[in-house]
Amino acid sequence: MKIGELVTVKTIKNDTDEKHTPYSAEIRLFSCVQQGDIESLITQLKNLDSIIVMGRMSDDELMQHKYMAVSTITLATRYAIQGGLNETKAYEFSDRVIKTIDKLTDKNEIFMCLGIEIVKLTEDVKRNKKQPEFSPHIRNCIKYINENLSQKISVSSVADYCGISADYLSQIFKKEIGENLSSYILKQKLEKSKSLLLNGMSSKEICREVGFSSQAYFITVFKRVYNMTPSEYMQITRSND
After folding, report:
1. Burial level of 213, CB count in 10 A (0-12/13-18/19+)?
2. Average per-residue pLDDT for the chain
3. Contact 155/166 with Cβ under 8 angstroms?
4. Terminal C-alpha separation, the chain
5. Is residue 59 packed enough to be buried (19+ CB in 10 Å), middle (13-18) or exposed (0-12)?
6. Rounded Cα gap, residues 183 and 218, in angstroms
7. Would the pLDDT of 49 be above 50?
């Protein structure tokens, strides 16, 4: 089966049916883009009966599918940026794909284009995680973090890996990335934890998988960042299924 053939769409025609893609399904799909996880992305595309569930946005069937594709690409682009892809590169990708979609005249061509381009975008994120578009020290820093999310990561341990002082690494990281290194490390761990929660892992299992010191600490920082506990997050996502 070709990549584009995995993408399907369901249009809602009345007020009694489900109006939009469930939030949990959206998170599972676009988190794959954010993490550069090609294998899981393909699995999500295969396992979902409908990748996109949408209300009627146009009486013209072709325009309906174009709106769907543009919305999907826009969301995927945002997640790619959150995954570390350079903003300029991500927006250039989005502009290019939207222009291509605008010229298409067949809904099957739109689905094919959408599937292929989402995979390409995820591949870009994956490549960038291996070799980010930053200075050598920051590339090594991000590489180390991505490869050791299951371990306890400190600013000092990352600095030792990069061969520079913790103070200097913190300084250049803030300058190039725009946030504190310690905050970035925590954010990467929490983003991975959200995906693991949706895949059925318990908080206790996630502590081991993502390297948190204790279940209580994991729940505390999760709530501080997302304003809800992991269990509350799961209740919200499941209620949208």
Report:
1. exposed
2. 84
3. yes
4. 27
5. exposed
6. 14
7. no
Instruction: Using alpha carbons, select from 147, 85, 88, 146 the residue that is nearest to residue 121.
Output: 85
Whether pTM > 0.85 for this model: the answer is no
Query: Tens digit of pLDDT for each residue in 69-94?
Result: 998 999 999 999 888 888 888 999 99
Mean per-residue pLDDT, 5-25: 55
Q: Can you tell me the mean pLDDT for 170-174? A: 94
For tokens 């599972």, the residue is 28
Task: Please write the tens of the pLDDT for every residue from 200-216.
Answer: 888 889 998 898 988 99
Q: Work out the number of other CB atoms within 10 angstroms of the CB of residue 29.
A: 22
Structure tokens at 49: 């009966």
CA distance 227 to 84: 23
- Closest Cα partner for 218 from 195, 186, 196? 186
**Which string of b and e fits 86-113 if b means at least 16 CB within 10 Å?**
eeeebeebbeebbeebeebeebeebbbb
For the stretch 59-68, pLDDT in tens is: 888 998 899 8
Residue 227, Ramachandran bin (φ over 0: left; ψ between -120 and 50: alpha; else beta): left
Closest by CA position to 189, among listed 229, 221, 233: 221
